[in-house]
Amino acid sequence: MLVQVVKSKIHRVKVTGADLNYIGSITIDEDLMDAANIIEGERVQIVNNNNGERLETYAIPGPRGSGEITLNGAAARRVAVGDVLILIVYGFMDFEEAKNFKPSLVFPNEKDNTLT
Q: What is the protein's quaternary organization (predicted)?
């Protein structure tokens, strides 16, 4: 049996941009993506701590070291610059494997979204 578990999590990052006129996705500083083991195009659940919104989109890399977290397309309407988000990626794995799996958890600097 396969189960779905948390594979990656970026905890408490601030929205740096919202671009309604983009085709979709969330732009994430590539350093954060690497640290959280998130790949380009991977599905990301976004939890907005400021307004309770939950949505899903896919990840695209932003400039390294920039701290960029930009919601693009329709998702831009569900955030405001400065909102605090939790980004979660889930993966499917064998039940027995899941019992011992450890997700990649990232806790960036809350001031500028960079790794400390």
A: Heterooctamer of four alpha and four beta subunits.
Overall number of domains in the chain: 1
pTM: 0.95
Full domain range(s) for residue 35 = 2-96
Q: Which residues are catalytic?
A: 25, 58
What is the 3-state secondary structure of the chain? CEEEEEEEEEEEEECCEEECCCCCEEEEEHHHHHHHCCCCCCEEEEEECCCCCEEEEEEEEECCCCCCEEEEHHHHHHCCCCCEEEEEEEEEEEHHHHHHCCCEEECCCCCCCCCC
Annotated binding site for substrate: 57, 73-75
> Does residue 115 lie in a domain region?
no
Does residue 24 surpass a pLDDT of 90?
no
